[in-house]
Design a protein that fits this description.
heterodimer, A: mainly alpha, MetI-like fold, two-stranded antiparallel ribbon, 14 helices, B: mainly alpha, globular
């Protein structure tokens, strides 16, 4: 190592030192601590008691975990595919480069940026069975709207409806994907006499597959972490109908003070995310090969 | 570049354009209607809020709701707390993540690749995992019911921002560094004088990302803050709910005020924001 190389390495470690400290104190350390806590019973007031894998076994027998997992899967199963289709459709429309499409993009993105407690309160009001905008609008076309968040059968669909309002992130990612499409593929398709539908189905969709995959995985992860909306709007009710995994985890940790059980739940979530991410990486690898095959060396 | 191009003459093109506008307008109405409804409710008298059929344009207009709602709780204090947290975090997130991202992107050192894998690995860990241990840590430190747990962690960079900026820094030609190094520049000067000026859009994207996510953060403040004087806007708004709809006109008024800074930032720096989202998507 020359002097200059040594100096550069020193500067590197100096540069990343905040992150290294953070890794020990605020990420890596707590991750290991969380794993350890998940094997104990710990209610904060008394010292932790070693339980082995009991929390993980309890998780599968616990009614709350089962219900919250079921609710989360139901919510994910509806909101992710619907969100994908809606955001892709909007992105396709915006990609037509009609005049003023930037303004439209802004409008469609707005709800995403304001998402938070204010928007949860707004939707609580929109979904009001008697005076809310949604049932008023349904009334105009002769449909008597359901009681939404007050009806155990309609509470989850109401949350799905709300999720379709905040598709801005997926939309922007799709738009970027569409704008990066190589034009020559469309030219080739046209020469082969493909109509618009075939062009969309045989060029756009295959080329967009990695993006769709990415958006799908990140949306699933986000929907497993749903918290603010349900906490503010329903607190999991009515009954347990909107008790989501993220909410139940929070309740265990900070309402019931079951730190060990909550940590086991967090690791369960982590494993789901890990599996999805690995799936996503494998998909991405396939994609690189695929596009490389067309473009040659990148 | 367009995806659904028609090679036909001008009449089908016009029809197509008309169809696109029609769909876009329809979507825009659906997406903005909740905001307009919010605005309309916030300006109504309580009697007007609960009338059938509803009045979309309130008459009379009652601006008082904004003052009355604001005074129901110490919202000025909440705003101040929120501004302190978000501006501090936006600055620190950008600064620290930039320095760390720069080191990963532009400096050579043994072990660097392994450490970068760690950055990527910690990006995958959901915050739920570290929530409990961090809560215990911060309560041992006596930080609970102060703003510290919501601010101090940003001093150490956030893996996602580090990754984002590192990716951006690697796209800037390395010849610049080499030339500067030849002239005897040390790394910090390269960072400040070459990379920062060339990376303003990416840095702005990170700052805005950080600002928006901290402004909207709810669970963090919910866990750590219990004294009304420390509350953020998100917690204050949540108190307004209280299961009662009688004050809904005031609730909507305060909610509008609370998202106003987000709208201002978004409209003035939309370009950077969209760019940031795009950058984060490209990692796929």
């Amino acid at each position: 190592m020359t002097n200059r190389e040594r100096r550069e390495a020193l500067e590197f470690y100096l540069g990343i030192s905040p992150w290294l400290i953070g890794l020990v104190c605020f990420t890596g350390g707590p991750i290991l601590a969380s794993l350890a806590i998940s094997f104990t019973q710990w209610r904060l007031l008394s010292p932790p008691k070693w339980l082995g894998i009991q929390n993980y076994i309890d998780m599968f027998q616990d009614e709350g975990t089962r219900v919250s997992l079921g609710n989360t899967l139901f919510y994910t199963g509806l909101s992710v595919p619907l969100g994908l289709v809606t955001s892709l459709f909007v992105a396709l429309l915006l990609n037509q480069r009609a005049r003023g499409s930037t303004l439209f993009r802004t409008l469609f993105y707005l709800p995403t940026i304001t998402s938070g407690v204010a928007m949860a309160l707004l939707w609580l009001w929109l979904l009001n069975p008697e005076f809310g905008l949604i049932n008023l609008a349904l009334g105009l076309i002769g449909i008597k709207g359901p009681a939404w968040l007050q009806d155990p059968d309609w509470a989850k669909p109401a949350l799905v409806l709300m999720s379709l309002w905040t598709i801005g992130t997926s939309m922007v990612i799709f738009l970027a994907g569409l704008q990066g499409m190589p034009q020559h593929l469309y030219d080739a398709a046209k020469i082969d006499g493909a109509n618009q539908f075939r062009e969309f189905w045989h060029v756009t969709i295959p080329m967009l597959t990695p993006t769709i995959f990415f958006v799908m995985v990140t949306s699933i992860i986000a929907s497993f972490q749903t918290f603010t909306n349900v906490y503010v709007m329903t607190e999991g009710g009515p009954g347990w109908s909107t008790l989501m995994y993220g909410l139940y985890l929070y309740n265990n940790a900070f309402e019931y003070l079951r730190m060990g059980f909550a940590s086991a739940m967090a690791w369960g979530l982590f494993l789901v995310i890990l599996a999805l991410t690995i799936l996503q990486l494998l998909g991405a690898r396939r994609w690189v090969y695929y596009e490389g095959g067309i473009r040659g060396r990148i | 570049m367009s995806t659904l191009q028609l090679s036909g003459g001008s009449i089908p093109r016009l029809i197509r354009l008309f169809g696109i506008y029609l769909l876009l307008l329809f979507g825009a109405v659906l997406f903005t209607a909740p905001f307009l409804w919010m605005l309309s409710t916030s300006l109504k008298t309580p009697e007007l809020v609960f009338t059938h059929p509803p009045q979309f344009i309130p008459n009379p207009v009652q601006f008082r709701n904004y003052m009355d709602g604001w005074q129901r709780l110490p919202f000025t204090r909440f705003t101040l707390n929120t501004v302190i947290i978000t501006s501090h975090n936006a600055i620190m997130d950008t600064l620290v993540s930039a320095i760390v991202g720069f080191s990963f992107a532009r400096l050579r050192a043994p072990g660097k690749d392994y450490l970068f894998v760690l950055v990527l690995a910690t990006m995958m860990v959901p915050y739920e995992v570290t929530r409990v241990p961090l809560y215990i840590l911060f309560s041992r430190l006596g930080w609970v019911n102060t703003l510290l747990p919501l601010m101090i962690p940003t001093w150490f960079g956030w893996p996602f921002f580090i990754f984002l900026l590192r990716q951006f820094f690697t796209t800037i030609p390395f010849d610049l560094d080499d030339a500067a190094r030849m002239d005897g520049c040390h790394s910090f000067r390269i960072f400040v004088q070459i990379l920062i000026p060339l990376s303003k859009p990416a840095l702005a994207a990170v700052a805005i990302f950080s600002f928006v996510s901290n402004w909207n953060d709810f669970q963090g403040p919910l866990i750590y803050l219990s004294d009304l004087n420390q509350y953020t806007l998100a917690l204050g708004l949540r108190m307004m709910q209280g299961g009662r709809f009688i004050f809904i006109h005031q609730v909507m008024a305060v909610s509008i005020v609370s998202v106003l800074p987000l709208l201002l930032i978004f409209f003035s720096a939309q370009r950077y924001f969209i760019r940031g989202v795009t950058l984060s998507g490209i990692k796929a």
